[in-house]
Description:
By secondary structure, the protein is mostly beta strands.
Amino acid sequence: MALAWTAATDNVGVTGYHVRSISGTTATPVGTAGANATALTVSGLMAASTYAFDVQALDAAGNVSEPSNRVMATTNGGSGNADLALNRPTTESSHTQDYGSSNTVDGNPNTYWESANNSFPQWLQVDLGTAKGVGRVVLALPPTTTWASRSQNVAVQGSTDGTSFSTLHAAAAYTFDPATGNTATLTLPAGATARHLRLTITANSGWPAGQISELRVYSA
């Protein structure tokens, strides 16, 4: 993954840049770029995962600037493991204003589905087109830090015909924290197959509604 920034051309003392990966309160250096650089390629990242990064400027005396604003980046699904839900048809139990369920499969983490308020349970469903092997569901909320950390109680059901559903993942609480990408990964049973996947949300500690910005489905 290549990260880009604007060089501090007005600061002639800059001799380079540190790029750091952020997880919670821990910052891990992932590379150093020269004074005139505006990008750095970061390797060794997991497929279909969201990371937080920041940048610090260095000078000849060894001083290090305050970190930049954090940037969120999501890697692609990797070879043979594309997002099966991307741009697929969706349905929902309800939505408020213009926050419809199609926002969850548009590839844009800043758009989101929000159900009717104060009325649990709520559900969100995607049609994968044909029955496929499904191994993992990745859920996201908008990565901006204006979204405070929250927990949502989520269950996953699957169906091959859109009528008869079986439980693929029992209800459990998942934490969405912007400091670590605002995502949650739900691992499905080995050999699970579905055309229709339904998420049922029964609680949200941050808002009295179901909220999902990205619903990504992977075969493994």
